[in-house]
Amino acid sequence: MNLDLPFDLPVTLIEANPVLDLAAKTGLLLLAGLLAFFLARWLLVRGGRAFARRTRSKFDDILLESGFFSRAALLAPAPVFFWGLEFFSGLKGLLDHLIYAYLAVSVVLVLAKLLDALSGLYRTFKVASRRPIKGYVQLVKLFLYMLGGVSVVAILLGQSPWGLLSGIGAMTAVLMLVFRDTILSLVAGIQMSANDLLHTGDWIEMPAMNADGTVVDIALNTVKVQNWDMTVTAIPTFKFLDTPFKNWESMTKSGGRRIKRAVMIDQSSIRFTDDALKKRLMAVQHLAPFMEMRQKEIDAANAASGADPSSPLNGRRMTNIGLFRRYALEYLRSHPKIRQDMTLLVRQLQPHADDGLPLEIYCFTSETAWALHEDIKSDIMDHLLAALPEFGLRAYQRNALVDVRANS
Q1: From edge to edge, which strands make up the β-sheet containing 257-265?
Q2: What is the rounded CA–CA span in Å between residue 105 and residue 101?
Q3: How far is 333 from 31, CA to CA, in rounded Å?
Q4: How many CB atoms are located within 10 Å of the residue 367 CB?
Q5: Of 77, 13, 5, 1, which Cα lies nearest the Cα of 39?
Q6: Range(s) for CATH 2.30.30.60 in the chain?
Q7: Three-state SS letters, 286-307
């Protein structure tokens, strides 16, 4: 009686059945490749982490964070698979092609991770915000994937990859149609980079796309803008070729942000200044020197022309709107948050029958941050609106019931 029969029976059955024999060898080979992958990944990640701790270079840290070492472990099963070909004598040719195809895919995936790591290293430099390369990296990865796909097909068919690539030349028109948006986006990215039009962190406005906020990402096909309401607008990159947009970055760099706001004056409150108003306004420090100088000019001009003082329409006279306009100008000139080296003026605009007389404040604040700029602008407008009654003026309010006798 043979006691070893129960243990030898499965092996005998496997050897007697070619299908079971092939399945067992394939399973063992795949298991060996999987073990090689996990072992290589453990060694590479552990070694990479230990090496990164001992160096000051940022690149090894970025390689570790991007998953490059984990991806590189995909190459480890290939030598195991080539070694296992000795057990598949009848299928060696077919499996040889499959392993080379696997190796080609693994190399492409590893190179893609390497490109991600190089892109991450580039983003650590200051120039990255001015010259983003994410779109170019994505384009290189696209060509890499296409080349990998062609190589895999060529390997499986047993043909030269260059011969297969030459055949693709006949499909150029089809490829141009399929990748039309990608090609246009690439052209747009090159133009924006060459002309320094757009960078990550810029505040842009593109009304056609309902975008008004900060650029958070510039990729090959899309530009992401985080709007001020915290929503995100994804704009196709090629839209920047033919859609107008406004970039506020130069305003931030200039160190000045514009105030362009008008005070609407009730035209019925405009009048010549009398002695009582002049006496009261002479106590205003910003206005007294100007009033003394202007009164001397007016007196000299009226004397030279022989103007009859019995009517205010004869000769020259000061008006309350003119004095208020000068006061607003002097107030802005003395304001510590207004840029004196940039355009600064107070001017009258075309009056409207339904809106009063616009007196526009045009200047630049030294604070460009939105909240600080709005505070300064509001403080200035608060002060000027509150100063109107001191000049005998009223702010215009449509359909407001105002007793015109109050300033008569």
Answers
A1: 257-265, 357-365, 345-348
A2: 6
A3: 81
A4: 18
A5: 77
A6: 193-253
A7: CCHHHHHHHHHHHHHHHHHHCC
Distance separating alpha carbons of residues 380 and 258, to the nearest angstrom:
13
Cα–Cα dist 288/274, whole Å: 15
In the chain, ranges of CATH 3.30.70.100 domains: 255-407
Contact status, residue 232 vs residue 217, Cβ threshold 8 Å? no
Contact 38/77 with Cβ under 8 angstroms? no
- C-alpha R_g of the chain: 39
Structure-block tokens of residue 269:
């409150």
- Strands, DSSP E only, in 267-385? 345-348, 357-365
Reported CATH class of domain 193-253: mainly beta
Q: What is the pTM of this model?
A: 0.53
pLDDT in single tens digits along all 408 residues of the chain: 344 444 454 555 445 566 676 677 777 878 888 898 888 888 888 888 888 788 877 777 888 888 888 888 888 888 888 887 776 666 666 777 788 888 888 888 888 888 888 888 888 887 776 777 777 787 788 788 878 887 888 777 777 666 666 655 555 656 666 677 777 777 777 777 766 788 888 888 898 888 998 898 888 788 999 998 889 999 988 888 788 888 887 777 788 899 999 999 998 899 999 989 999 999 998 898 999 999 898 889 888 888 888 788 888 889 999 999 999 999 999 999 999 999 999 999 998 767 789 999 999 999 888 889 999 999 999 999 999 999 999 998 876 655 544 444
The class of domain 255-407 in CATH terms is alpha beta
In angstroms, the CA 173 to CA 145 distance is 20
